[in-house]
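Researcher: Here's the sequence for the chain we discussed earlier.
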Amino acid sequence: MRNDETRVSVVLAESGDAVGGTERVVWELATRLPAARFDVRVWLSTAPGVDEFAAALEARGVPVDRVPEVDSRWDWKGMFETWRRLRRAGPRLLHVHHVWPAADRYLATLADVAGVPHLVITEHIVGQGHSPAQRALKRRELERADAVTAVCGAVADALVRDIGVERARLRVVPNGTEPPDEALESVEAREIRVSCGAGPMRPLWVCAARLEEQKGQDVLLDALAEVARRGLEFTVALAGAGTQRAALEAKSVALGLAGRVRFLGQVEAIGPLMLAADAVALPSRWEGLPLTLLEALARGRPVVASRVGGIPEVIEDGVHGRLVEPGDARGLADALEAFHRRPDAASQLGRAGARLVRERYTWSRVVQGFEAVYDEVLGLASFSPHAARSMPGGRA
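Model: Thanks. This is the structure I predict for it:
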């Protein structure tokens, strides 16, 4: 039996300015952690891009605070306000989710000063190199944490290699997904295929990600131009918003792809789009463990993705999908051509990916993994260290 029968007050903090994979993890924790055990609040940024997300959480009965990020040591007013909010909330456990490598680096210090007893930090992405000052700040923050988790082994390795985190302090708790309701999604999926002009000899390829340098849509456009030069028909849907949209649209026109590539903007329900696809491309330059990968695999879609971050921890090349080196437009083109010319083999990859996701990557497993980490941090008697290590990719 547990030695603590009171509910544990938990604040889940995340400072992203748009809805993405990190927000999805926060959503699943906030709505799935057992209410009999945990009293959960969520801290989000004041950015308009998360307004709907905040409203959806509140509609589910989860209290939400909008807290500006303190991103400078000279922001004394912001530091005082954040400290005051922490004192007032009085959480027993603060769980900080980092969507960017240098985000929220003062929150751990402020929590310590405010008397928050326990701190868990989750790193979601392998980013570009840090300056020495950023590494030092991050190292101090992670040293204050009672537990550090990462969404994949690649992120954990980066924390050890670049920041000096002790391996024994790290837990890997991967992202998850849910088995889709294909009967519910299929009607919209058929409408998407019709609207995109997809057909038996004109496959629909989908890339769903923020339109940013990290996600590599420019590399995908180069690959598509190569596929077109090989005489194959296709149509492509790029779903997502971001700072690179204008540049990508201009490049699409310059490469002669304007009639083949559609920019859909932000898509709220990604499931039907994934189900509509004949294949999904993730040409990222760097990653953690992208949710779009798991969403595509859950629907049995053949995937070609860059060999970065946690992606090769999920996909075995030639078994669950295809892997290419980041920036390799020709390799990406070769994989898409193979999907086009051998749809039966591509479907076999998709089926294997779907089985893998059902067996290993579900949200219930993710929440159980974090609950085990919380129990370890809180010193509850029922915690078994094997629970955290049993997660896919978990390590002590």
